[in-house]
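Long-time lurker. I teach an intro course on protein structure, and each term I like to show students one example going from raw sequence to a predicted 3D structure in token notation. This year I'd like something fresh instead of my usual example. Would anyone be willing to generate the tokens for the chain below so I can use it in lecture? Attribution to the forum is fine with me.
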Amino acid sequence: MKRATLCFLIRRGTSDTVLLGLKKRGFGRGKYNGFGGKIEPGEDARQAAAREIAEEAGLTVRTEDLVPAGQVTFFFPASPSFDHDVTLFVATAWRGEPCESEEMRPAWFPVDGLPFHQMWQDDAQWLPLVLAGRSIEAEFAFADDNETVTQASVRSSP
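-- Reply from a regular --
Happy to contribute to a lecture. Here you go:
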């Protein structure tokens, strides 16, 4: 099981917005998601999240500005190499302006208008909780198509 991170950058205001990235290649291509990836040897989850945000969106986030938001485990029985245990973070402070990378095309979305039709199917079940400031523990299993959620468990706390 791969250990990974996923971070959601939130602009607070009259209408909160979240920065998502359209995945341009590899696993999840064509889907919007937060920024993150594998935890490399010698890194902790915060360091990995800060590195991935810099690589994928050109932004600098201090590790102390990453707020833990829970854990999600993804199971792909038809493709076990896709299994991930993901540490979630949110951040409301960073330096720089988002810019497109080889892997991601950043775009801002209203928190109450997320493009779920172009995201992983599980996201609608847990992402609104995280963006509302809750911490979650969740598990999702996917069908043989590696797209359809077959089992889900989401627990949240304030």
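Some talking points for your students: The chain has a mean pLDDT of 97. The helical segments are 45-57, 123-131.
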